[in-house]
Amino acid sequence: MVMVAATTTASHLTSTFLSTPDFCGLSRSLQWPHMQRRCTRKYVPGAISASIDLKPPPYALHALEPHMSKETLEYHWGKHHRAYVDNLNKQIEGTELDGMSLESIISASYNKGDILPAFNNAAQIWNHEFFWESMKPDGGGKPTGELLELINRDFGSFEGLINKFKSAATTQFGSGWAWLVYKEHKLDVPNARNPRPSEEDNKLVVVKSPNAVNPLVWEYHPLLTLDVWEHAYYLDFENRRPDYILTFLDKLVSWETVSSRLEAAKVRVAESEKEMAEIDADEDLDTIEPEDTDMYFGSEAEDAEDFLDDE
Amino acid sequence: MALRTLVSGKTLGALSRFQQQIRGLQTFTLPDLAYDYGALEPAISGEIMQLHHQKHHQTYITNYNKALEQLDDAIAKGDASTAVKLQSAIKFNGGGHVNHSIFWKNLAPTHEGGGEPPHGSLGWAIDQHFGSMEKLIAKMNTEGAAVQGSGWVWLAVDKELKRLVIETTANQDPLVTKGASLVPLIGIDVWEHAYYLQYKNVRPDYLKNIWKVINWKYASEVYKKECP
Q1: Cβ contacts (< 8 Å) between B206 and chain A: which residues?
Q2: Which of A211, A212, A215 is nearest to A223 (CA)?
Q3: Tens digit of each residue's pLDDT (9 = 90 or more) over A34-50
């Protein structure tokens, strides 16, 4: 137990920045210098390398009954989630992924869609942690405050969101996940900027993803998720996925958690916009002083006149 | 359109099929199993067989029929974007029907030859291509266990090259999506619904045990047809 705590602390200290969404929110060109420095660290056999932990749900395994059975949690967390952790640690040992934060491993192994072997395990660990925390005993009910305002704005009503979410969860064919995400309005090109960023442009959206894929790879900010792999509901609901979805929304979802995730996402977005603006200000070519025109026109006065006269 | 909202689910199904038949549109129905639900125990539980057949396969058929009817409509109206939009529903559900129809024939109770290795040309081809039955099984089990999420693992014959191949497909994609000349001999469903109630997360145990009820007679017949 002590060993585990030590490695957790070590990984927390060394990867504090890397594990924050701040880091992951930066465009790849800004991320790479950090990752390259980490990658050149040599693996010393016998040294404690930070491994990924199996994080327990924030409640006892029986606490979601009768809506999600203890048996389901025992298998889903105790076997499936645990296997992803054990397998990932085995996979990354001694590689450059060893010691990286979970989100960095996900980003690196997603490899722009050309998925590398570690991705399935890493992303599934992240997804399951996010899923346990999306639920609570005596969950359900309705969201409130700013979350509800944005839901009304972007889905028309709470029922509008529920219908969209139900549909995504039902129509995700095969294995996968349904998500509510906070989507920043930004262009796909790394050096293009939204000239007038406004909170109005950022939207709540429902998306679905197959197998282990999650919205981090699309640079969205996840707020809520539902696991629709069959193992998530088969013991309690057999083939009746729609009943499972309804039960989740009615009895299990923790809207408080969703609200605090939304708050955190808005802070991250605002901070990253500020950073981008600062970077742009530094690089702004329009701030070149008049004296610098020599650089462009040369020191020969005659050349400058020729250029200017050229109509 | 209004008529549909008045009738119940059951009669709606009957009404749909009636309408489809008037149009000359073929509807699909759930094929019967050649054995009882419990006849494959202990390799596959009766509980799983019943759910798998009566719920999962039936749902694919119901949704396939629905998608075909909508496609027929769209084609008649010249609605190209709807026709294209329906393709994924057709692949999922039609594929599910195709794959499961093969699967039920791939299985047989032990007292009816389930698990008995093939003699004749298929047995010889397996030995020639894989070295032995054990090696074939080991390879299929490895590939089946490695399927991420939902899918199938297949032993197939390439009817052009006259060669045995092992392939996997994702979700309900039929084998032909991996090659137009591939003919399925044995398909093993590795969706979690195929084994979860009995084997839980231990897919490798399911794969180890299912060979006890694999119907090699059917596989041999298909093989002989493609490689006479």
Answers
A1: none
A2: A215
A3: 444 344 444 555 555 55
* ipTM for this prediction: 0.89
The minimum CA-CA distance between A78 and chain B, rounded to whole Å, is 10
Name the token pair of B4. Answer: 């549909």
Residues 6+ apart with CB under 8 A from A269: A25, A182, A184, A202, A221
Instruction: Kindly identify which residue of chain B lies nearest to residue A72, measuring between CA atoms.
Output: B200
Residue A65 has, within 13 A of its CA and on its CB side, a CA count of 11
pTM of the predicted structure, to 2 decimals: 0.81
Task: Give the span between the Cα atoms of B176 and B98, in whole angstroms.
Answer: 11
Measured at the CA of B143, the angle between CA A77 and CA B204, to 5 degrees, comes to 45
Q: Give CA–CA dist A54/A8, Å, rounded.
A: 11
The 3-state DSSP class for residue B96 equals helix
Length of chain A equals 311
Q: Which of A258, A262, A177 is nearest to A215 (CA)?
A: A177
DSSP-derived 3-state class of residue B220: helix
pLDDT of residue A200: 74
How close A231 gets to chain B, by Cα (Å)?
Answer: 6
Contact residues of B toward A, CB < 8 A: 51, 55-56, 59, 88, 92, 148-151, 170-172, 191-193, 196-197, 200-201
Structure tokens at B176: 């032909």
Distance CA B141, CA B133 (A): 12
DSSP 8-state symbol, B7: S
Residue whose entry in the numeric block shows the structure tokens 């408080």: A256
pLDDT at A223 over 50: yes
**Residues A170-200 pLDDT 10s:** 999 999 999 999 999 877 676 777 677 677 7
Q: Report d(CA A140, CA A254) in Å as an integer.
A: 6
Q: Which residues of chain A lie closer than 8 angstroms to B87, CB-CB?
A: none
Domains and CATH numbers, chain B: 44-227 (3.55.40.20)
Q: SS3 sequence, chain A?
A: CHHHHHHHHHHHHHCHHHHCHHHHHCCHHHHHHHHHHHHCCCCCCCCCCCCCCCCCCCCCCCCCCCCCCHHHHHHHHHHHHHHHHHHHHHHHCCCCCCCCCHHHHHHHHHHHHCCCCHHHHHHHHHHHHHHHHCECCCCCCCCCHHHHHHHHHHHCCHHHHHHHHHHHHHHCCCCEEEEEEEECCCCCCCCCCCCCCCHHHCEEEEEEEECCCCHHHHCCEEEEEEECCHHHCHHHHCCCHHHHHHHHHHHHECHHHHHHHHHHHHHHHHHHHHHHHHHHHHHCHHHCCHHHHHHHHCCCHHHHHHHHHCC
The one-character DSSP state at B45 is -
Kind plus residue range of the DSSP H or E element containing B28: none
